[in-house]
Every structure is written in C-alpha cells, then in structure tokens.
Write a structure and sequence with these properties.
Layout: H1 2-7, H2 22-52
C-alpha cells in the first residue's frame, strides 16, 4: 500500500493518510493482532491434535566423530 502511495499523485490540499500518532499506535495494533492470531492458531492445532494425535518428536544423542 505504501508503494502505491509513493507513486500516486497527491492533491495539493490533502493531508498525509496517517499522522505521527500512528507511529505509536501501529506497534500495539501489530502486537495485539499477533497475540490474537497465535492464540487462534494454537487453539486450531490443539483441536486438530485431539483427532490426529499430535506430533511426536524423538531426540537421539549422536557421539562426536
């Protein structure tokens, strides 16, 4: 979107689409969206793992050569 605004002509009397306050608000919106979607992804995984059985990981020590 920012790339389009870079090349789009701006009328002389218009203001920028975002004010300096958005520099403060956007990181919190981004963190909130991340929290929401990670929680949603975890819930979907847990629901699917009930039916499929989840993941099993086995770790084996390999001696140095």
């Amino acid at each position: 979107m920012a790339l389009i605004w870079t090349f789009a002509p701006i009328p002389a009397a218009s203001k920028p689409p975002f004010g300096p306050g958005m520099l403060v608000i956007f990181p919190f919106l981004y963190a909130g969206a991340g929290l929401l979607f990670v929680a949603l992804g975890c819930a979907i995984y847990n629901l699917a793992a009930r039916f499929v059985g989840g993941l099993e990981i086995s770790v084996v020590d390999v001696p140095d050569a």
